[in-house]
Task: structure prediction
Amino acid sequence: MSLFEKCYSFTRAEDAQKIGLYPYFTPIQQVSGNRVKVDGKDMLMVGSNNYLGLIDHPKVIQSAQEAIDNYGVATCGSRFLNGTLDIHVHLEERLAEFMKKEAALSFSTGFQTNLGIISTLVQRGDAVFTDRMDHASIVDACRLSYADIYKFKHNDMGDLERMLSLVGQEVPKLVVVDGVFSMEGDLCDLPGLISLKKKFNFKILVDDAHGIGVMGKNGRGTAEHFGLEDEVDLVMGTFSKSFASLGGFVVSEKKVISYIKHFARSLIFSASITPASVATALATLDIIENEPERRERLWAITRKMKEGFQEMGFETGLTETPIVPVIVGDDMKTAMFWKMLKDDGIFTNPVIYPAVPKDQSLIRTSYSATHTDEELNTVLESFKKCGRMALLIK
Result:
């Protein structure tokens, strides 16, 4: 049997493309605020993670352009050798200060960040516990660690406690959770997790890719939201959401960060973040710190959209964030609903199994602080019209 046989027999993507129900790898031709152009057609974007609306902020663009002028477009090397610029160090110092941790370390992508943290700290003979709805980067990182892996039911502290009790007290343990779960928009049960930590003596890593910049009074994420920042051992974040850039980072104790820096293969053997991306992250960090009104606006938008969908009869699940899912259930109905919204000029993300549990397929919508009331009303009207046509609401 040929190695490529599985490639030749895979036809689901082609089949979906033929009937116009293929939603992935959509080429966006132009971006202007919350408007995008797809296939020459203007669409209203409610599928981006641009939570604070900073991708086209004048100060951010200027900062990126100045970095290119000073450093060029790339580092052409890893952080370990020739790829560390002074702005990398400055960004990490600023992040540690902002997140109220001793030290920070940046990676080229968020995915690589989780790979680096987990596969470096957790080793053969250790135990790692993950929520079943954790991000794919966490799943892959655990596989690379060679540790014993335990997956507990989503946000079920009872199930986690049962698994922890099966592992000896002498075994080093790490529990990894998403702060904000990226498809459903719900939060981890961090208070429950901290309670178990005191009993079982494990370390906690919170992947707060969708929380930093959004959650908490100062935008420091899920731990700040719960008032538990001092109880969390490691916090991971990305630059591709609120920071409107590309890359990732981790904050923790200085000695822990130093160890990761010298042993994380995804850091040592990857080119470092480009100068423009670093400068963008620095500029957006300034805005996150100094313009809390953006978060206030984002939360007002979140309440409006969640209430609007619920009043129409849509189910929005357990979301507590600017990720507002519209749960459809059936995969094909979800795909059809997505297509109707697309044809009506609304850019959303259809999410089906295995990204969500079976019979929980949904349309993922997410919002930016720069969405206008007019744009939001347009989205609500489109969902109402298309939802009725699809027989999802009355």
